[in-house]
Design a protein that fits this description.
This protein is an alpha+beta fold. The protein is built from six helices and five strands, in the order ααααααβββββ. The chain has two domains: about 100 residues, no CATH class; about 140 residues, Beta Barrel (OB fold (Dihydrolipoamide Acetyltransferase, E2P)). It has a five-stranded mixed β-barrel with strand order 1-2-3-5-4. The longest helix is centred in the middle third of the chain and has 29 residues.
Length: about 290
């Protein structure tokens, strides 16, 4: 294997680390990092990315210098010994035989060509992803993703932070600041939902259409990063037109028993108004 082939994986790996670190710092600089990770991990992530950039650059320099000095060293004084000449002859004979095998189409040459193609392909993908991250505007997770991740599921995972949800039903708790996550958790974990009927709510989220004049008001809850984001939602019934999918809205109304008795969610929001809004600067809940 040539020295260029042996250094290619190391260079590609270091280049990938450098690309990811630069993208992370760029997202932090333009204020979009919170679209990908939980804000409580932002400082830690930025520090790691800042350390990764010089480390990756230094590694690439070392790899490049190693490649430049990977040829055989000469004997002291600049002359070759007889042993060197014999070794050179053996290497020449072996190289000639290897080239002959390569020209014959044997696996050695094909393997090197395959590695080269895969290496260039991986490099192209790395560069492409980096350019896309820097050029294309970041977007939030969509209604399609929410449907794929079962926004209408009857249970919520620990990612929604529902550990203290039993306290939410206490009369001493102010529910005016409850978000979609809080109400969804309370509704799904309260055995007697009759006490919730009639409570007024004002909630913001995006639309996941459900048909028949209803939709699911949805938010994504991020525990660590967008990869583990879980959608949570509340069913909304409205006498008006259902907004398009992915539209952000603020819903005002009251909690009522779900007209669909076969549905897993026993409580829905009967909307008195559905107002379309711009996407919030922080679209996730935590």
């Amino acid at each position: 294997m040539s020295s260029s082939e042996s250094t290619a994986p190391a260079a590609l790996g270091l280049g990938s680390v450098l690309a990811v670190a630069l993208c992370t710092l760029w997202l932090a600089l333009v204020g979009h990092l919170d679209l990908y990770i939980n804000p409580r991990y932002a400082v830690f992530t930025i520090v790691l990315a800042a350390l990764a950039v010089p480390a990756a650059v230094a590694g690439l320099v070392v790899v490049a210098r190693g490649h430049g000095h990977s040829h055989g060293d000469e004997a002291p004084g600049g002359g070759h010994t007889h042993d060197d000449e014999a070794a050179d002859g053996a290497r020449t004979t072996g190289g000639t035989a290897a080239r002959a095998r390569d020209r014959g189409g044997r696996p050695g040459g094909a393997g090197r060509r395959t590695r080269a193609v895969l290496g260039w392909a991986a490099a192209a993908v790395t560069v492409g992803v980096t350019v896309a991250m820097l050029v294309l505007p970041p977007t939030t997770l969509s209604a399609r993703t929410a449907q794929q991740r079962s926004v209408d599921a009857a249970t919520l995972s620990n990612a929604t932070g529902t550990q203290g949800v039993a306290l939410l039903g206490s009369d001493s708790v102010d529910t005016s600041d409850y978000g979609v996550k809080d109400w969804a958790a309370l509704i799904r974990q309260t055995t007697d939902t009759s006490a919730l009927v009639g409570k007024r709510v004002e909630l913001t989220g995006f639309v996941v259409p459900a048909g028949d004049g209803s939709f699911t008001l949805t938010r994504f809850v991020i525990s660590c990063c967008a990869v583990d984001a879980q959608p949570v939602g509340l069913g909304v019934t409205t006498s008006g037109a259902v907004p398009d999918a992915d539209r952000w809205v603020t819903v005002r109304g009251s909690l009522v028993a779900n007209p669909d008795q076969s549905a897993a969610a026993r409580i829905v929001v009967k909307a008195s108004s559905v107002r379309q809004i711009a996407q919030p600067s922080d679209p996730y809940e935590y």
